[in-house]
Amino acid sequence: MNTYGFDPSKIIIEEVGRSTVFLNKEALYPEFCPPRLVHREAEIRELTRYFKFLLSAPGSLSQKILIYGGIGVGKTCTSMVFGREFSRIASDKGVNVKYVHVNCHRARTKSMVMLEIARQIGAPIPPRGLSDFETYLGILEYLEDIGAYVIIALDEFDYFVRTEGSDAAYFYVRTYDDMPDLVKRVNFIFIGRDISELSNLDSATASYLLRHMIKFSPYTARQLYAILDDRRKLAFKEGAVVDEVLEMIAEMNGIDTGGSGNARAAIELLLLAGEKADAEGSDIVLVKHVREAIAALDSIESSYLSQIAYIKDTIIHLPLHELLIYAAAVISLRVKGTRWVRMGDLESQYEVLCESYGEKPRGHTQVYGYILDLARRDLIRKKHSGKGYRGKSTLIAVDAPLEIIEKILINRIETLIKSSWRG
């Protein structure tokens, strides 16, 4: 072998056999919902007060609750844990209560939301051929047939209102207005970040939503320490993370100590510190590893930090092929070094990515649909070609640091492929 060569198999074997501080790394991923909640007892109690009628007088009303708050304050996990435990307790008391959680970033239209609700409750609804109203009636009839009640959580509901409009929100919020004689089997939890989006709704629909609200406040440093301690037990080997690491991260992110109160950001920093320890071959995550992780984050210009946080939070909800198209746009722009890239070039890069991951490319119409959705989410910008371009084409731009976004996207794509979730 050449003196300057290397044995790749040896490197791979060494890395595979390298020790790690992690026990279950997935417990630090943004989409992970822990089996128990920390510091959301008051919110669980309030949700229970709103829905306890389902145990004593099921069908007497259709409850609608709006929960809202910023990124990383536990809205989704709280709703899911409440739904899981409430359904179990209801079953013990002889009441069939189902909990359905639909992310409106993934199920982007009213039709997709309806079909996802039907799928989760097990209603035999055909995926094609029915109107939205017919699908909804089928869901209501199925619940009647099996004698069940349902709590439907519509996550990212503010995004749904922004894209689908007031009529779509009215469709859910006022289910029983036109069917007052039906047993009220459907209840809702609407989850959003900002209630200002609801200003676009008609006053009657908005009044339904604003009648019962639960605000999720940012976490304090003390609360974040408890959350991080819980994740330490789930994600790391015993003794692998010293207390000072948790104290440092909690104080950096606590709302009362100058941070944003975002648990997701704090957990991500703990994940990065663990990865720094692994890369160094250390059996313990130390404060110096947190500092190294912060330095890596600080290498990003501060003007981009909120944008990157938004992108990270948003792409969690994208299906695999929409992620591949987004990555294709980013890679095409980076390789070409241009402000805009043609749709045709993007599709060519998308096909290359599909081949590298063993995926069958989607057709042009579906690709363009994903492009429209990425634009609606403010992840890309698009326009029609004009002066200086030969022929007519759609042009795509990404106003973000391309190398950083590319790395984030590739990590997310590979995580999805490993988990076999396609969306």
The DSSP helix count reads 18
Q: Main β-sheet: number of strands, strand sense, barrel status?
A: 5 strands, parallel
Instruction: Give the uncertain stretches in residue-range form.
Output: none
> Can you count the beta strands?
8
Which sequence of strands runs across the widest sheet? 2-3-4-1-5
Distance between the termini: 46 Å
Give an overview of the whole structure.
Helix 10 crosses helix 11 (243-253). The chain is built from 18 helices and 8 strands. The strands form 2 sheets. A 5-stranded parallel β-sheet has the order 2-3-4-1-5, sandwiched between helices. It has a 3-stranded antiparallel β-sheet with strand order 6-8-7. With 423 residues, it is α/β, with parallel strands linked by helices. The protein has helices at residues 8-17, 41-51, 53-56, 75-92, 110-121, 132-146, 157-164, 166-173, 203-210, 221-235, 243-253, 263-280, 287-298, 302-315, 320-336, 343-357, 364-376, 402-419; strands spanning 64-68, 97-103, 149-155, 186-192, 213-215, 341-342, 381-384, 394-397. The mean pLDDT is 88.
